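G., the chain you wanted modeled:
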Amino acid sequence: MVEKIIELLSSPILGSLAISLAVIAAFASMIDTFRRILRTIPVSYRISILGLPRSGKTALISAMFAELFATSGETLFPVGSETINRANRLIAHIDSGRPIPPTVEKDAFIFRFLYYVRSFFFSRIRYEGEIVDFPGEMSEKLLESAADGTLDDDIGIFSKEFYSWVISSRVVVFTIDVAAYLLADEQRHHVAQLTSEIRAAWQSLNDESAKAHAPRERRVALVFTKMDVARLFESTDSGDVFDDQRLSKAALEAPIDGVIDVELSNYDKAVVDFKGILESDFEELISFFRRREKAFDTFFTSAYFKASGARFGVKELLAFLLPRRTY
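Predicted structure as tokens:
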């Protein structure tokens, strides 16, 4: 009997089975180790929001967090009482229809969040997200200095911290205030200047990233803010019509009639027509990014205008900005 057992254990079939079980066990151990590493080593994920003063950057960040709070589930969490308190305070401003005051230098603030993305073998990668609300004057100086070729001389003047942050960001968002665009005395000049400044700023950032050996792969978003002004738009046989007095109110980051929630179909034509005008006027800038950046898109947003319960365009923007699944 003993001889039979020894003979059975030494058979090629059982030997192959033992080897297979050992390989499976080693593979399972490797997967478990890999999953634990992914859980314990966070990935830094910075998002830069750039735009001229009063272009609606703080309102946009607030609207983004409002959508995040509504859809966070088990994958996204705000981090720290300061982030939670400030975000909720700003969201209350928006929901009550009050304008958000412009950010000044002493109020620059980092919003922090954790975001988990499913990866290989049912593991999750933990991203430590950060969005900084810098004063618009810093973005303005960056754009102007890049356009006139004095960026290297001016960095120390308007903030090395701000510039370093933008260089190290995984996502860069350029905001364009559509209310200010509509109220410009010479819209063609306004568009040409913004196009020149944003293009020069992006080229300078890429050049500095290469010098600093920073990650080159970034996502770039061109975001048209304050699309609630589309509700004032009417395309007629005699031309495009806007209420300039109410536009002036919108240009100062004040909402038009507070927050409203409508079925988008009620404004479909106005929104589509207005978006078409913006895409046509800024075609040169949009084409520039499309030719050079693999991960680029344009978005049309409003913090104060809801379409079927969601802040207009914000959910789509978030889907683009946040880290993607890796499988």
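Confidence is low (pLDDT under 50) at residues 31-35.

Shout if anything looks off.
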